[in-house]
Amino acid sequence: YSSAAGTLGNPGQANYAAANAALDAYAHALRADGFPAVSLAWGLWADASGMTGHLDGDDQDRMSRQGALALSAEEGMALFDAALRSSEAVRVASRMNFPALRAAAA
Question: What is the pLDDT of residues 13-23, one digit of tens each?
Fold first, then answer.
């Protein structure tokens, strides 16, 4: 697994984004060598976890303004299943508000 931060970036997380981009690149290299690799770059999950349990309302609002929408467990599992069937080395499993993402990038 990797993070959508490796594909989309995330303010203040250059090191985290770079590490996840490296995982994605490794999946591409493995796939090029004939191995059935896939890197699933997860976006924000709705359920609290070790990665998101500390986020408060302000954090959620900031992420929403940047275009990130939370995945339900059901959506995440459906995206996981789809990634396993994909011929792509990297899949981004995320819900996005694209107008907000474009506005944040401007």
Answer: 888 899 999 99
What pLDDT score does 52 carry? 60
Q: Distance between CA 103 and CA 106 in Å, rounded?
A: 5
Q: Which CATH number fits domain 2-105: 3.40.50.720, 3.40.30.10, 2.40.10.10, 3.40.50.1000?
A: 3.40.50.720
